[in-house]
Description:
Elements: H1 2-26, H2 32-62, H3 69-82, H4 85-130, E1 132-136, E2 139-144, E3 151-154, E4 160-164, H5 165-170, H6 173-189, H7 191-204, H8 209-233, H9 236-246, E5 258-259, H10 265-273, H11 281-311
Parallel strand pairs: 2-4
Antiparallel strand pairs: 1-2, 3-4, 3-5
Helix pairs in contact: 1-2, 1-8, 1-11, 2-4, 2-8, 2-11, 4-7, 6-8, 6-9, 7-8, 8-9, 9-10
Amino acid sequence: xxxxxxxxxxxxxxxxxxxxxxxxxxxxxxxxxxxxxxxxxxxxxxxxxxxxxxxxxxxxxxxxxxxxxxxxxxxxxxxxxxxxxxxxxxxxxxxxxxxxxxxxxxxxxxxxxxxxxxxxxxxxxxxxxxxxxxxxxxxxxxxxxxxxxxxxxxxxxxxxxxxxxxxxxxxxxxxxxxxxxxxxxxxxxxxxxxxxxxxxxxxxxxxxxxxxxxxxxxxxxxxxxxxxxxxxxxxxxxxxxxxxxxxxxxxxxxxxxxxxxxxxxxxxxxxxxxxxxxxxxxxxxxxxxxxxxxxxxxxxxxxxxxxxxxxxxxxxxxx
Length: 319
């Protein structure tokens, strides 16, 4: 029975998790960094909970005999055999499903990682051949001769900030400074890792509402977080005008690089020019912490079920 309850908890997290996160941040804005922590943390909790479910299935049959890999395999075989063919089918299906999910995650990660590395190597060669390294407003950048106004950052080897000559022609010095601060914030914050993680899970496990919502929300939040740094360093005006200059520019591949034109520029500008009413920090953080505890509950429950099944001996009641 408890195994089915654990499955229900993970299913609830998958379906109701996005609603919990949106409700926690709708009226009390905790800031993009806190929201990023919640969304990325929810995706990690979902994956760990699914792994724990497989362990629950094994621990239910193994009980206190979880003493190593060999003993585990032997005990599992004996337990399944003693429970008949139905238990064999159930446990086999659970293990096969777990192996399939793990294999799909690893395979998807390898494919995306290979594609990303290939793109970065090819782009690095293009920059070495055609770009001119310069220092603008205290930032090392690679200036690409192109009439299109573009600016983006490429992770790896310390990261590179790329800006085109066309961008510098349409931007004022303060606007260019805001753009560079925005891209540096992406590199310093490791935003490509957060975006890559949620997109990897969404690609490996499609049709999961939580993962789909995270893959849509996290790229927006990293742009908001980078905008906040640019506003603190340069001001709202230069950033807002720069976003207007880059409106409609696709930039680099969004699977590898983070472009200044990412997310909706109108929403980003409106967020700073007409910010939503902010409540005090304590209620905002309180709601964020409460949402985090709700999201972590399925993982805590499945782990508790695993430990209980593995440690507590079974109770046989005489008829």
